[in-house]
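Cross-check.
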Amino acid sequence: MKVSEYVSFDAVGLAELVAEGTVRPVELEAAARQAVQAVDPRINAVVETWPSDDEP
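Predicted model, tokenized:
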């Protein structure tokens, strides 16, 4: 999922995509992390990110 697609949905819409099998949860996580990396340097809102269970 691209960040541009991710930001066009609210949480309910994202949950529906997962329930339908259109998107996997890991894809949502990746899009969310990319969105944070893109925006946070300008707004400095995220204090800490934690690695996913898939990261070493």
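The two ends are 22 Å apart (CA to CA). Residues 25-43 form the longest helix (19 residues). Passed to J.P. for a second look.
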